[in-house]
Amino acid sequence: MTAPRRPGLLTDLGAAALALVLVGIAGMLGKWQYDAWQASREAEARDLTGIAPVPLGDVMGNDDPFPAPDLGRPVEVAGEWLDGGFWVSDRDRGDEPGYWAVAPLQTGDAAVLVVRGWAPQPDADLLAVSGAADVTGWLQAPEGTLVTDDDPTDDVFPEIRVADAVQRVDVDLYSAYLISQEPAPGLQEAELEALPTPSRTTGIRNLLYAVEWWVFGAFAAFIWWRWRRDATAPQLPSPAAG
After folding, report:
1. 20 to 30 A Cα–Cα from 180, which one of 10, 132, 163, 187?
2. How far apart, in whole angstroms, are the C-alpha atoms of residue 87 and residue 124?
3. What does DSSP say about strands 132-140 and 74-81: parallel, antiparallel, or unpaired?
4. How far is CA 92 from CA 165, 176, 194, in A?
């Protein structure tokens, strides 16, 4: 066995410099993609509840699906209250169980469901409402966990489902409801339940790109290490030399 080979100084430095450059570039590009993934998730989960309200028509039409990025956005709507209100059960306010009072508000050719407030028990007098109204409320997506209604004949629903509520009015309903910022007389403020949360797939492409770049950087470092190890390994004597 002879002394280990050593690459020339320039070759050694050049290989190390190239490896460092490749690892550095891969690390920075991976960090850039990772930051883009984080930014996508933060943008989807942003809290809109404190911004200035906009007209409901600027956010969605009555035939539009619910705009998920606008969950919790304050919106303004003017219209006429319609018959067909109902209570929604199992709506806690703090630690106190209670009910939401919901009524359809017609605006144009359709109506939007409005949570007018909270009460500890259903009360027909609190549910009754009529006339014109200007409402500012937080935009919420209709529910639909298919909870069974124990008594479909009463005015108490287990959830706010458009498919159930539309049977109580003669107009189309928006695929959304509002939680009024100002409770109606006799009612207390209903707590805002749903705020945006990012889905598991939000920005997933950026995250995968980040992992790919980091793997590439690790591979470049491995190639340099393997080359350096082989370049400095002891030389075995050839059979002819023996």
Report:
1. 163
2. 9
3. antiparallel
4. 21, 21, 13
Token pair belonging to 14: 């050049």
CA quadruple 164, 104, 135, 190: dihedral sign? negative
What are 46-60's pLDDT values in tens digits?
667 778 999 999 999
The structure tokens listed for 126 are: 């609190």
- The runs of H, that is alpha helices, within the chain are 9-44, 56-59, 124-127, 162-165, 204-231
User: Taking the model in full, what pTM does it have?
Assistant: 0.63
- CA separation for the pair 37, 69 (Å, rounded): 16
Handedness of CA 160, 163, 165, 166 (dihedral sign): positive
Half-sphere exposure of 240 (CA within 13 A, CB side): 0
